[in-house]
Structure formats: C-alpha cells, structure tokens
Design brief:
The chain is an alpha+beta fold and 306 residues long. Helices cover 66% and strands 10% of the residues. Helix 2 packs antiparallel against helix 3, helix 3 runs antiparallel to helix 4 and helix 7 crosses helix 10. Its EC number is 3.4.19.12.
C-alpha cells in the first residue's frame, strides 16, 4: 500500500468512527501492547547483549509508533466530528419537516403521539451530541497532558538542578545500574571497574553475606523468600547475565567499593546507602520508574560545569 493510499484509508476510517469508538479502541490497543511488551521483556535473551539491545529498541519503537498513531487519530476524529454532527442535525431537520407535512392530514391524537416521540428522539440526539463533545474534550486534554515519563524527568531534573547536577543518560540494556556506578567512579576519579567486574564482585559479596541479605530476597512471582537453590541462581544471574539490579545490588556495590551511593528519584527523598560506614561524597545516580515501558532504569549524573 502506498503512502497516499494509507493516508486515505486512515481518513476514511476516521470519518466513519465515533469518539467513543476511538477511545475504546485506544484503551484496548494499549492494553494489548502492554501484554506484548511484557512477553518480549520476558523472552529477551539474557546472555546476548546485542540481541537484548535489539529487543529493547524494538519495544521502544512499538510504543512510540502507537503513541504517534493515537495522537493522529485523535486529531482526525476531533476535526471530523463537527462535520458528522452537522450532517446528523441536517438529517434531523429533514425528518422534522417530513413529520410536520404528514401531520397536516392527521388527527389531533396522531399529532400528539408523533410530537412526544419526536421530543424523546430530540432528547436522545442532544444527549448524544453533548456526550460526544465531552469525550472530544477529554481525549484532547489527555493527548495534551505530559506523560508519566515526561513528568518524572521534569521532577528528577529539577532536583538535580538544585544541586548543580545534570542527568547523564545510560543505555537501557539490563546493565544500567552497573554502567551508572562505573560512570560515577570515573566522574569522582575513583579506581575504575568494568561492568563485568562490578557484576562478579557484587555476586561474590551477596554470596558472602547470604545470612544477612537472604531475608530481603523474594521470588518475583510468588513473593516467597528464596530457598538455597534460588539464591544460588540469583547470584549466578548477577554475575553471568544482564539481570537488572535493585536495592540488594546497590547495598553490595556500596559495601564492596567502600563508598556511599545516593539514589535520586522523582518522588520522595533520596536513598543514601553507606554514608555512616564510609562517609565522604556519595556516588549520585537516578532511579526512573517510567522512562521505559520494560521496567525500572538507572541513569548517572554530572556536575553542571562538566
């Protein structure tokens, strides 16, 4: 199908679609995409960094394309709806004229019955037009509202700005926590580590401190505490895959590097680990909940003058 044909098909589709239909379809499509993204995230290869990166890029592309298409459809329906409403009103006026002409030869009872039916129909049509207008306004307002991602970025950026810091973006490949910490080591002129070294040392630390950490480690599906076999699998994933890192890994990194780590997020106070034990300036990273559909993400920071 050519670009012109595709545009024409979209215009035809919009002209024949009500705002209620569009809103319902958009909700259904977003729900279906969420399910698809979750499946892709689950099936993304853990041991092939390049292949996993392709998966993540494809997930981002699908989400972006759907958002753009939804906005285009909303704009199209919003502009087409007044025309459709005017046509409906014209048909309604013609119907009234036909009823009026027919009443000239009818008796009074028939005229009264038609009049009541017409009033009911007028009321239904008026309510339908009012509801359509309400939906149009709601959809337009929703399309113009900043997304959770945008709101979160604005909040984090504002917090960083107050501390003369700026956001340093880290690739979303499962290693984001370790890349962010590695970048902070470089920024603060501390001994460097590769991502693989950080992963291996983190796994070693978690194993060595099993007794104090396992009480915080639960299975993501059941919520039960990890058993010994699951604990070993968890540590293997830290060392050998691109598994995401969370609070357990942050605690381990702070302890093994002997440096405080501060995690800034959009809402609430920053989380500071290792300050009492090690003191000094912390490594400052950012935690994002909404920047990507596939889950949590970490970015690093830089002083404004760098």
């Amino acid at each position: 199908m050519s670009c012109v044909e595709a545009v024409g098909e979209l215009e035809t589709r919009l002209a024949e679609t009500t705002l209620e239909d569009v809103a319902s379809r958009h909700r259904r499509e977003r729900k279906e995409l969420q399910a698809k993204l979750q499946a892709m995230k689950k099936n993304a290869p853990k041991n092939n960094k390049n292949k996993r990166k392709e998966f993540l890029e494809e997930m981002t592309r699908l989400e972006s394309e759907m958002d753009q298409r939804h906005k285009a459809e909303l704009a199209g329906v919003a502009s087409a709806e007044p025309t459709a409403t005017a046509a409906a009103e014209s048909d309604h006026d013609n119907d009234k004229e036909e009823v009026h002409n027919g009443e000239e030869d009818a008796d009074g009872t028939q005229q009264q019955r038609v009049s009541k039916a017409q009033k009911r129909r007028n009321k239904k049509e008026r309510e339908a037009r009012e509801r359509a207008q309400e939906i149009r306004v709601e959809l337009q307002n929703a399309a113009n509202q900043p997304s959770p991602k945008q709101i979160e970025l604005q909040q984090i950026t504002a917090k960083l700005s107050g501390r003369q810091l700026t956001l340093h973006m880290i690739a979303s490949d499962g290693d984001c926590l370790y890349h962010a910490v590695r970048h902070q080591l470089q920024v603060n002129a501390l001994p460097g580590h590769s991502v693989q070294q950080l992963r291996q040392e983190t796994a070693n630390y978690v194993r060595a401190h099993k007794d104090s950490l396992i009480c915080y480690m639960t299975h993501p599906e059941t919520g039960d505490l990890l058993n010994d076999e699951q604990f070993e699998a968890y540590c293997d994933d830290i060392a050998k895959t691109h598994a995401w890192g969370g609070h357990i890994e942050l605690k381990a990194l702070s302890s093994l590097l002997r440096v405080p780590i501060e995690v800034i997020q959009a809402e609430g106070s920053a989380t500071l680990l290792g300050q009492e034990e090690f003191g000094g300036a912390p490594l400052v990273i950012c935690y994002h909940r909404h920047i990507y559909q596939l889950g949590a993400h970490y970015n690093s920071t830089l002083p404004v003058d760098k």
